[in-house]
Design the sequence.
């Protein structure tokens, strides 16, 4: 590729033209191609879960022995560990010495169906490197799993527990990469719902998203509540606990009462997780809109030159592309959105809570943003995002990145710019042209789903909805978050989602923007690029 050029907002992303996909050569077979020089610019961030063998051969940084179970190095889940082992000591190349380090031990908590993968590098003295990988429970409850490594070997965790990982070397000095915590299959996604609920994560009290195993042969037991709605299949949906300790409805609650309801909801979810007829149970997490700056005039839209957008407009304006904006809704009569919205019945309002909808009803076919504040001014966040995506080039205010694209406005955020995973799941399915709570489908599914929203807390149900959209051929983009942390932020952190962090006018990471391994792109630009859209390469060619 010539270059990669990205913007720091979730609703804007540019991709470079592809040399091998475009053009056609010509001339005689004897022609000598002209030498071409390319410049690649970017930044490298070290994932927060990257770790190093504590007794590697790099003695300049000091070592801590991890040569026995009692000295096992504690690592995170997930983790990528760079290590070194050797069955002998000596020197090579006449000047580089190496020491004997026969074995490394690690200790980590793992979930069933996660994997431990060992990738042995070539021996520093040449030849094939042989290493052995052993996975054993700390409590010794089961026999160890062992794999002799020539190349890449993978062990699958048989059950949740506390484990030792042992790496041994048998062929002189060599390094290795240990990858811990990947899922052996997509079905292992469900195991993550058993992870702890983050203390900072918000969720709807008295509600859970569950998948019921009744259809798989388990004896049906009475559930402590009832389903409010279903997701795609009869066994998965939003569940309401019938519990006297949790107040129903929008009544004003004291801080103490809110704390009690949160704890009670967690207890009820944990109880469901212990049942043999429940595949997963998780909170109905709350996701929030991310604040964005106001750029009313093109002259103030400094991020456009940063991504060489004027050059991209020489290639395409986004005609024929549908971008679903899942947000607070839009102002349907805004002049910058005139002609830029999909037709009626191809949009929707999925805010189901009457107490937070602010439009007087539950889900309906009107995605108009009534404002997200009862008192004071509202953000009209969705209109801002929709305008950044596709505001018309009409001599009024600013202009959108893809100003000939169509926006499919879908309302998922209500009061305070907040919305639940249950509503977000339905909206994603609608945008992708899949079955959903509205009972309707857009005449054409979206090419791209944009979500400038998110929050802490892994949700299996939300991840499945995202995967279903990806499988339907939709590009999914989400904001990486504004907490200045490397902690996962969802939906941006799900596999397959393009997670986009923010930069300032200097091209550096914005002080508030999240970072780390879950982030895919940030704004960097030096060469001409294409507007981010599903048909970009086809248009360029």
Sequence:
């Amino acid at each position: 590729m010539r270059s990669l050029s990205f913007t720091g907002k979730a609703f804007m992303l540019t991709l470079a033209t592809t040399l091998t996909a475009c053009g056609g050569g010509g001339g005689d077979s004897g022609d000598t191609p002209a030498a071409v020089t390319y410049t690649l610019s970017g930044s490298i961030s070290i994932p927060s879960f990257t770790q190093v063998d504590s007794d590697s051969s790099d003695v300049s940084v000091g070592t801590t022995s991890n040569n026995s179970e009692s000295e096992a190095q504690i690592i995170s889940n997930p983790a990528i560990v760079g290590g070194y082992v050797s069955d002998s000591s000596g020197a090579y190349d006449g000047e580089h010495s190496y020491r004997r380090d026969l074995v490394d031990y690690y200790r980590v908590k793992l979930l069933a169906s996660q994997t431990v993968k060992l990738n042995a590098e070539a021996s520093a003295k040449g030849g094939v490197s042989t290493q052995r990988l052993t996975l054993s429970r700390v409590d010794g409850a089961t026999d160890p799993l062992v794999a002799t490594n020539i190349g890449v070997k993978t062990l699958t965790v048989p059950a949740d527990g506390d484990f030792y990982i042992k790496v041994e070397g048998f062929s002189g000095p060599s390094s290795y990469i240990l990858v811990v915590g990947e899922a052996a299959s997509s079905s292992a996604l469900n195991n993550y719902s058993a992870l702890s609920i983050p203390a900072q994560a918000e969720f709807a009290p008295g509600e859970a998203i569950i998948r019921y195993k009744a259809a798989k042969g388990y004896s049906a037991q009475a559930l402590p509540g009832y389903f409010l709605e279903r997701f795609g299949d009869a066994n998965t949906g939003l569940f309401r606990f019938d519990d006297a300790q949790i107040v129903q409805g929008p009544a004003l609650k004291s801080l103490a009462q809110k704390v009690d309801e949160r704890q009670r909801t967690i207890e009820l979810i944990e109880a469901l997780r212990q049942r043999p007829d429940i595949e997963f149970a998780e909170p109905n997490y709350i996701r929030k809109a991310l604040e964005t700056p106001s750029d009313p005039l093109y002259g103030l839209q400094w991020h456009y030159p940063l991504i060489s957008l004027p050059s991209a407009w020489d290639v395409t304006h986004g005609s024929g592309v549908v971008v679903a904006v899942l947000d607070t809704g839009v102002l349907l009569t805004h002049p910058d959105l005139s002609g830029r919205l999909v037709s009626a019945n191809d949009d929707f309002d999925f805010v189901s809570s009457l107490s937070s909808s602010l439009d007087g009803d539950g889900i309906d076919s009107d995605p108009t943003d009534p404002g997200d504040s009862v008192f004071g001014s509202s953000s009209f966040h969705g209109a801002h995002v929709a305008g950044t995506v596709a505001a018309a080039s009409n001599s009024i205010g600013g202009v959108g990145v893809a100003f000939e694209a169509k926006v499919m406005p879908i309302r998922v955020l209500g009061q305070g710019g907040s919305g639940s995973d249950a509503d977000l799941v339905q909206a994603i399915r609608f945008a992708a042209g899949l079955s959903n709570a509205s009972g309707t489908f857009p005449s054409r599914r979206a090419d791209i789903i944009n979500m400038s929203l998110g929050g802490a807390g892994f949700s299996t149900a939300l991840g499945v909805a995202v995967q279903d959209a990806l499988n339907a051929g939709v590009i999914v983009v989400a904001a990486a978050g504004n907490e200045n942390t490397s902690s996962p932020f969802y939906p941006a952190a799900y596999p397959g989602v393009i997670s986009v962090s923010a930069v300032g006018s200097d091209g550096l990471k914005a002080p508030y923007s999240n970072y780390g391994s879950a982030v895919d792109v940030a704004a960097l630009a030096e060469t001409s690029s294409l507007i981010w859209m599903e048909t970009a390469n086809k248009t360029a060619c």
Residues 1-29, 186-191, 292-302, 523-541 have pLDDT under 50 and may be disordered. DSSP finds eight helices and 26 strands in the chain. The two ends are 14 Å apart (CA to CA). The first strand starts at residue 14 and ends at 15.
